[in-house]
Amino acid sequence: DESGKYIGPDLGLEDDDDRDGDDDDDDADDDDEKKIKDGDENEGGKRRRGREGSLVDQAQTPEHGTTCSKMKSENKKRRRTTDYHAELSSTQPLSQHVLVKHPEMFLPLLADWHNPYQPHSVLECQGDKLLVKPLTEAKTTARLVLLSEVRPYSLPTSGEWLAVGRISDPVTNCLLEYVRSHVTWCAWSKQEKYSFGKSNGCPKSASRVVEAAIRTLLHESWAGSFKFSTGNDTVDAANDAFFIRYEKDWEVPPPHLDVAEDELRGQQIANAILYLTGQPSVIGGETVLGVAPGLKLSGPSPLEITPEKGKLVVWRSYDDQGIINPLAMHTAMKV
Hints:
The protein has 6 helices and 19 strands. By secondary structure, it is of the alpha+beta class.
C-alpha cells in the first residue's frame, strides 16, 4: 500500500516491520502472548488490544482462546520466517534455493499452467537483496532481487519425480529386432555423434505392453498428476516410438531439458526411456540426471541411471504446480 507495507499474497516471508533488523525476540513474543491471555481490556471490557496494537472487538471473538491461539501461531510463524532470513544474512555463497518470478517480458510467453516462478540458486545476500541465478540456465547473468520478491524452494526428492520399472525380455527383444531392421537413423555432418530414429510401425503387441507399463508407473507414483489419453483424441504423439543410439566413443548430447512444445500436441512434461541394450554387454552409456548448471555449487551429485536391457525409467520435468524441475536436466555418458 502507500505506506510501503506488503499486502500481496503470503510468500512465507516477514513483513516490512521486520526488515529493518528490529525483529522481536522470544521474550517479547512471550510478553505479547501473556498480554493477550490476560486481556489488555479497556472501555468496559468490550475491546482489547492485540499484538500489533490493533483493536479487536470482543463481540466478534467471544472465545478468548481462539484469538490467543491465532496470535501464538502468528508469533511462531514470525520466528520461523526470521530464522529463514537469518540463514540468508551471510555474505558468503549459500547452498540455498529460492523461487524467483520470471522477468515481466517472459510472462506472456508462459502457458496458463506454467508457474510464473522459476528455481534459482542464491549466490549471495546483500542486505535486503539476494544475488540469484536460474538453476537451469548457464548463460543467464546473475541478478539482484528483493527478499520480498522470492519464495523458499526445496529440490524435489527422487520419489516425487523419478520412477523405475521393467519390461520383459521377449518384448524388449521384439523391439530391438524391429529397430535393427526398420528404423532409419538421422545423418549428422559429424558421423560420430548420437543418432535419432523415429518410427510409425512398431509391433503393436510390444508397444502396447510398454505403454501399459508407463501408465502403471505414472499411476502408482503420481496418481493425481496425469490425465491419461484414451488413444482416440488428437493430442497423441505423431510417432509411436522415438529412438536414440550411441556407439563407442560417439559424442553425447549436451545437458538439456526435454520440454518441447507443439501447437497441436501440447508440451512434453515427462520422459520415458526403455533401454533395449545395456550392461554387461555394453560399458558406459549411463543417463545422467541432475546436471543443471546451478546445481554444481548448491545441489546434490548427479544421478546416474545404469542402462540395463528392459529397464524402464520415467521422470517428470514439471511438478504439480507447473514449476520446472532442475533435476530433470540430463545428458549421457559415452559408451
